[in-house]
Design brief:
By secondary structure, the protein is α/β, with parallel strands linked by helices. Helices cover 37% and strands 21% of the residues.
Length: 435
């Protein structure tokens, strides 16, 4: 088989409330661990509520082996606080680079290495909290409107500038000596799959031989309040994908990095290959922001396009890792698309949803779950869907509820994000005979 235009995954770097890196993450998944906690939030020192979150504890960017001078340079530039979203993205990049064995410390201009980042709105939560707190403090000082404006402008102009997504690309590219084609994108919960497709296109077009993709997000009081207002927050703190009593989702801290590489480049440096990325399908429904249109076939179209571009038969897909967000409408929308393509309660593909382990990582969720899918593929272990006590019988899917050892060859990750962003990506193990 010709190796022209073939793209493979040679490094993964997941991190979440259940572990940092692939080894910790996989062991936690196998044991059925979660990082679910209950967080209190305060206003002016007074506790006003609490919420569930899959929370990372003990995150310290200094422990990831990143150049300390670079980190200090970032802190000095920013001037205030820890840049959590930036450091999450950097952690994903570093974990994936280390796993891939890719050299990135050379002083040469690494113009053949690209960078694609995704996040729904990096830095915004901290910015909102800071501006609320500092504005309130100033309002108590009886300043004139002009003085108030000048003070707020002086404090927040640079912090606001830092929210521009190109600054996240800049800091990461500088830190890791990446000088090739770069891109920041945001397609809501499906962002990670769009990023994988973008990276693949960059490699196939000849712009770069290798592309590092990173995505991240984290829970917060603001996200909790919004999800609760929309009726998408489960009171018991449990995401229950495809369950009869599903009632919403919980945010989860974390993210991931993935290294995609031209097959020739991977073989030349004898890199470990997790899988080949063989194709994706994408669509934008464009109906409502928070719920999909049950009468629409937009999601089906994305999945069918992934199968078509992958040049495989649908019967070859062994496993689907769906969005599995645990809301009434979205789970039904996913099940409807799967049934339309694969039939009612098909023996194949199996369905395994993993948000109950790690929470909903929002803009990072699709990429983080893709790293879990790749570990599943490599280990030939299908993870059970946690918290599914009673499968909704109106959803005709083959949901895995107990850990299953089975030979896997071809797997698919799907996502149907807010605002109607639909995506599906297909990965396949590489056989030596096919090289």
């Amino acid at each position: 088989m010709s190796r022209k235009g073939r793209v493979v995954i040679t490094g993964i770097g997941p991190f979440s409330s259940i572990g940092f890196g692939k080894e910790q993450t996989w062991q936690s998944l196998i044991k059925g661990k979660t990082g679910l906690t209950k967080e209190d939030y305060f206003v002016n020192g007074e506790k006003v509520g609490s919420y569930y979150q899959h929370k990372i504890t003990g995150f310290d960017i200094n422990t990831f082996g990143i150049d300390k001078d670079m980190l200090e340079d970032i802190r000095n530039w920013k001037g205030q606080g820890e840049a959590l979203d930036l450091f999450y993205l950097m952690a994903g990049v570093k974990l994936a680079l280390d796993d891939s064995g890719l050299e990135y410390t050379s002083k040469d201009n690494n113009s053949r290495v690209g960078l694609v980042l995704t996040h729904e709105h990096p830095g915004s939560d901290q910015f909102y909290e800071d501006i609320i707190n500092e504005s309130y403090e100033l309002s108590q000082q009886n300043k004139s409107k002009r003085d108030y404006f000048n003070t707020i402008s002086a404090r927040f102009l640079k912090r606001g500038y830092e929210l521009q997504t190109f600054m996240f690309l800049f800091h990461i590219a500088k830190t890791f000596n990446i000088h090739g084609y770069s891109l920041f994108l945001n397609n809501a919960c499906a962002s990670g799959l769009y990023a994988i497709e973008a990276a693949s296109d960059i490699i196939k077009s000849g712009k770069c031989d290798k592309v590092i993709v990173a995505a991240a997000d984290h829970g917060s009081m603001f996200k909790y309040l919004w999800f609760k207002e929309m009726g998408m927050y489960p009171k018991d703190g449990k995401i229950k994908p495809f369950d009869k009593n599903r009632d919403g989702f919980i945010a989860g801290d974390g993210g991931a990095g993935i290294v995609l590489e031209h097959l020739d480049s991977a073989l030349k440096r004898k890199a470990h290959i997790y899988a080949e990325y063989i194709g994706g399908g994408f669509s934008l429904e464009g109906w409502k922001v928070t719920i999909p249109d049950m009468s629409n076939t937009s999601y089906e179209i994305a999945i069918l396009d992934a199968i078509r571009t992958s040049k495989i038969r649908k019967e070859k897909i062994d496993l689907i890792m769906p969005h599995g967000v645990g809301t009434k409408v979205t789970d039904a929308y996913e099940a409807k698309a799967i049934e339309a393509i694969f039939g009612k309660n098909p023996k194949k593909p199996l369905i395994s949803a993993v948000k109950p382990y790690i929470g909903h990582n929002l803009g990072g969720t699709a990429l983080l779950e893709t790293t879990i899918l790749l570990m599943t593929l490599e280990n030939n272990v299908v993870l059970p869907t946690l918290n599914n006590i009673e499968v909704d019988t109106s959803l005709s899917i083959n949901l895995v509820k107990k850990k299953k050892m089975t030979k896997l060859r071809t797997v698919m990750k799907t996502a149907c994000g807010f605002a109607g962003y639909n995506a599906a990506c297909i990965f396949r193990k590489i056989r030596e005979a096919r090289l």
